[in-house]
Amino acid sequence: MTTDAAPLRIGVVVFPGINTDGDTHHALETFPGVTAEYLWHKDTDLKGVDGIVIPGGFSYGDYLRCGAIARFSPIMESITAFAADGGLVMGICNGFQILIEAGLLPGGLIRNTGLKFVCRYVNLRVETADTPFTSRCTEGDVLRIVVKHNEGNYTVDPESFERMKANDQIVVRYVNAAGERVEGANPNGSLDDIAGVCNDTRNVFGMMPHPENSVEAALAGGADGRRFFGSMIDALRGAEVTA
Amino acid sequence: MNVRVYVTPKKGILDPQGAAVERSLPNLGFQGVSGVRVGKIIDLSIDGAASVDAAREQVDDMCRKLLANPIIEDYTFEIEE
Asked: How high is the ipTM of this complex?
């Protein structure tokens, strides 16, 4: 067996109101050797998975604040411990909001400046390939995937922002197709055109756009989303070899 | 004890809803309005708190842990015995 196909199990967390769990499960299993396991929010058992993805949707109807209620689900305590041990955790859209509410990622996500739900393609520029989620990219790569959200406007206090820039924690930014940060490229008004960030130990990553909808070149969505999952899978296989 | 919690967008953080409301008011003839912030009110009652101070401590804890996100929101509250 080649290292490429070494069996791997990745958890997909399911909260009530999440609606891209199926897409995320499918996206992960398009990679040879990868099995996706649903993890129910009321469980605390991570079923021995190698990595975790928190998918998008509207957990608990977005009541109070997006992600605010989900963050207190039993599974989140286990995920917090998993992340503290260096486990790889990726949050997409509502999953990003949940990771922020749980304090696993810095900052906050507020209402889009246009006050409208946005659903469209965006171009993302990879700002760092030095994360387990972007290692299959080169800095400056432009990826085309979709956003679909109402609260994707990333913000953070100035001191944390400076620290994040110094630590290279801004992972992807909204740009135009040529990779330039221009008016209109950013769909939600986020600070500094931020689309995705990682924590200071780089093992927790959240992004508003949806890579799980771009994993098959034969389909309209393209395959740019594979880079994020593929990087994570590479990192997990690398970790297994050293373990 | 009855408690009313006020949650507003944190000072210095852009409030897209407040900005939209502020832009609309002059169209209706209301001039000179600034600083519009749109927040929310949460009403709740607490039974069995030993004192107003104890309730205050409890509500403050609730606000920090769930009712508000201190990174993006400010909160205040009133307690009525």
From this structure: 0.79
